[in-house]
Amino acid sequence: MKTHQFLLLNLLFISLLLVPFNSVIANGQEVCPNNGNGWIKFDDLDGYSFTYTADEGYLVAESCYKASTDVVYQTYEPPIKTVVITTQDHEISHVSVRIVEEVTPPPEVTPTPDVSETPEVTPPPEFTQTPEVTSSPKPTGEVITEVNTGANALPILFVVIGGLAALAVYLFRKQTVV
């Protein structure tokens, strides 16, 4: 007995998985809505297919059709312009569609630049130091070909530093020996 109940529950669960989440199937003498609120009903239909295109400015948000004892509801998210309903087992007897106003997004506004404003231009930085060129008077008729770059002072600087270092060592030894 428990095995039969388990199989029945599994069969019920599998059948629920086969039905799309946005569709509902009802059986019996139920009919599709015709209560206003955007619903439009089409009666006395026959055939296995029905097509409806919403008027300008409207979209279809839901549909319902009845074929024999099956009543099938369908939700369209987002809403669509044209709905095509088809069946295989039974002819369609009536259809209802719920229409909603089409919402058009506002046009994107691109700001236009204000042409009356003049962009501020920053001048490039100026050099504040000018290299100093010194020359010694030469006899008339000669062209000066040398520029004093200060590179000749380096050996003198080393001699001065070396002399100070030697003097410091000498004084340090003299104090520690006494």
Note the beta-strand portion: 25-35%
Based on CA inertia axes, which overall geometry fits?
rod-shaped
Q: Roughly how many Å is the radius of gyration?
A: 49 Å
H and E string: HEEEEEEEH
Number of strands: 7
Tally of helical runs: 2
How does the helix and strand content classify structurally?
A: alpha+beta
Question: How much helix, percentage-wise, in residues?
Answer: 10-25%
Low-confidence stretches: 4-21
First-last Cα distance: 119 Å
Q: Numbering strands along the chain, what is their spatial order in the largest sheet?
A: 1-5-4-7-2
Major pleated sheet:
5 strands, antiparallel
Summed over residues and divided by their number, the pLDDT gives a mean of 74
Q: What is the element layout, followed by pairings?
A:
Layout: H1 2-18, E1 23-27, E2 39-42, E3 49-53, E4 58-67, E5 70-80, E6 82-86, E7 92-101, H2 153-177
Antiparallel strand pairs: 1-5, 2-7, 3-6, 4-5, 4-7
